[in-house]
Amino acid sequence: MSTEYTPGPDTGPFPPVAPDVVAEAVEGLTGRLRKKLDAAVEGCAERARPGTDGAVQVRFGEDAEVTVRPGPSGVVTRAEHVVCTCLLAPRCLHRAAVLGAAPLAGPEDLAAEEPDADAAPQVPAQAGAPETLGPGAGEAADRSGAADGAPTGPPARPGTAPSGDAPATPAGVPGSVSSGPSVVTTEATAATAHGPATSPATDATAGPDPASPATAAQVGAASALWQAAAGALAGGVPAAGAVVQAELLRAAHTARLAGLPRAEAAALRVVRGLRNARDRRAAHRLSHLTEAFRELLLVCGSVASGAGGPALTGVARRAYRQGGSLHTYGLCREPVLSATGYGGVVTHLITPDGSQLQVSDVRPGGLARARGAGSASVALGGATLDHAGLSRGGLLIVGATISADGRLGSGRGVKATPLRGVAWAEQPAAALFAAPAARTIAARTADPDTSGELLGCDVAVVAAVGDHLLVRELAPDGSVPVDAPLLRLLPGHPHPELAYTENLRRLGTRPGLRLRVLGRPDLARAATLRALAVGPVPGAAYTLRLPADRLDRADLGYDRLQGVHLPPEDSRPAGDPPGPVGDAPDPLAESPLWRVRGLLETGVSGGRRAIAETARPGTPSATLVPLRRAGLATAAELTGALVAEADRRPRDAFGRLTDPGSDAYARAWLALAVHLSAAERSLVAASWAAY
Prior knowledge:
This protein has 22 helices and 15 strands.
């Protein structure tokens, strides 16, 4: 008996569909029917009606009706789950159109087909930025974890993104060694990435492991996925219809079978991003789609060149190692909300040696569950605490199991006993606030495995600008240095129904207020910290006044600050540096690198032809000259190479293209994208250390 599917605002009227089912249906169409597929997909959602036994029915005229009946997990995983009554079925346009209109099932959905007794709570795997409701939401969804049986990205600390997003901090022709996808890694070599190369690609989050070369099946699957991705990139969003998407999905399924879950996840993000762009959905973000293409091409190019290892291939199941007996202490809790309908909470813990761990409880349910899960019971070893109590308490865990990204497992052998919590002024939590933020950020930029860990710092509120706060970091003696850089405190999640934005606005009414902040650095923005919790600064008079039973801290996503928690305005200390009139300076936005990002996004939205338009007389100077004047010679060289390659369409005497492939163009685009990512990370790190 199938599980009844309940449609929601984030998923539409159809249940999720496995990528290979969609690809198979499109491949079965004739050339004439494929030309009509995009138009047929557009009207499917309006025709959908609920049927019996959890089915969804779509009628096309009098003689054709498509019935979608998901499997036991609520996911369409087999071709026989979707049937049509027309004479051409199953190779009919109606069936393919309905499958093309249904949302794609992710690894977390497919993992439900094979439940694991010791699995941790199932949550969306790599719900990257393109699927989120706003900035930072995708990172939260990534941190929430994945089902033990769901493919995940490379092992990394929570918050790192293989795309990135890993939500990022992230040669040879397919089947050949001399031509095809070739990617480079450093600025010195990126300048030649548009030409033939044999070096495997690496990135801040993906370094090839020479001891684990890719298998022949993985090389072939990565090469096929590279070809599909390069073709989709060259055509851009307008040409990426259902047929192009099906090619990507077929190649992604092959990558999954070959043991490349990271490449598969990146391909699914690209397809979802293309659908959002073509349908003009509110969830569409061109920057997220651009990053998804970069991740996909980078991973496929690396594996196609023979590089392997878990960092590139990803892991199909989250591996848990034995952690023995652990003393853990709560730091804060964080609501998780993704645009795919998942909601819940992640409670952050710390051990006596300073290691950061997480307990997650994320399931389908959306906003309602994200708000309610903060007080839900902790499903770990029979613990009698809820997440609110755990964030201010502790656990003695016997038989603990820990994943590579610091997530605690909830297997049958785990036993947990509540402990007294520790204040932020006590060890081991106090160590998070001991070092200057600039020093910590510099270390994390060099070590991507720690880039997603929580960061603590003591700050003074300067002003409120929009939905965020401008603050300055305090000196060790508690003063506010005049030359201290302006830092931005952004909400942990932008959804207005969560308490983040309201709390930051209330804190902004007290300029000069001393705060102890715990949050996650946003390494995609200059000097930005996504604040998760706040507390009073020890020894400061003009600071928060929180109840002692809360251990002098408040979770900004759940607890709502009131006027009684703030000091009187007339008690502000004199001598604080004046705040800025407008927003804080942003070296990342002021850099001419925005022109490079704009060019890359133009290529994604308009395809190769849109970039070729910039090669017209007089146009390239608008991009190249500012880059050279700013000393960004490598960026200028790579930009010129991309424009030249986009405009290079050699033809023979009869006007036929002599090189119709997109490999060289994809290599040039990827080289510029990798260089831009590295340059932006350098600027972000420098923005924290401006004094």
